[in-house]
Amino acid sequence: MNRPVVLVFVLVLAACNPIPPLDPDRFVECTRHYTACNPGCTSMDAVDNLPGHINIIKTRSNRVGETIHATFFLREIPEMMTFNRDGVGDTVLEYMWTVSVDVDGRIEPWLGHEYDFMMAAFTKASVVSEQGRNLVRPLENVIEVELYERLFDESLEAYTWVKVEGSNPGVTISREDQTIKLTSGIPG
To answer: Is residue 45, in this structure, part of any structural domain at all?
Structure first.
């Protein structure tokens, strides 16, 4: 696979600004929302006034063949976190870390519609279940991970994200390294 690949890391609550690097070994300073980088790139974020479990201090990506590895370095991943928090509606995404992947080289990160795939690790509130509100659990007991492909939907006359069945993406949480690592094969 010799096509260009660009990854974009996103955390709904905190992350970095798009600054594409020229050299994949250089660090990229970023300030808000998301950052764009090539596989092998590391980006840095100086924000420090957020709770540790949503404060991304660095991201790193790697590609081995058609498998993408994307790592979020957080200030802290607590042993236990609160889910189904007060004020979060049923089925609302409560925490989310995403990596958008562009495989064809058409990059418009500020618009967000030129990406071909998206890996997402997330938790979704489930407050109408018998479990109730403010549940304290380890993140790995609640987190889900999916791979989505952006496809044109003729009936909507628009692009939409469709779950890639059988893709088997993975998430690894390390409290020792304070990381959340997403891994998935990217078709093509």
So the answer is: yes
pTM of the model: 0.74
Q: Is residue 1 part of a domain?
A: no
> Which residue segment(s) compose the domain that 155 sits in?
6-181
Of 60, 105, 59, 69, the C-alpha closest to 185 is 69
The domain tally of the chain equals 1
pLDDT in tens, the chain (188 residues): 455 555 555 443 333 333 333 344 444 444 444 556 666 666 666 566 777 778 888 888 888 888 999 999 998 999 999 998 888 888 888 999 988 888 877 655 555 457 889 999 999 988 776 677 888 999 999 999 999 998 888 998 888 889 999 889 999 999 999 999 999 999 87
Q: How many CA atoms lie within 13 A of 8 on its CB side?
A: 28
DSSP assignment of 7-58 equals EEEEESSS-------SSTTSEEEE-SSEEEE-TT-EEEE---SS-TTT-EEE
> Does 187 reside within a domain?
no
Q: What is the dihedral of CA 122, 125, 131, 133, to 10 degrees?
A: 120
Give backbone dihedrals phi and psi of 19, rounded to 5 degrees, phi first: -140, 90
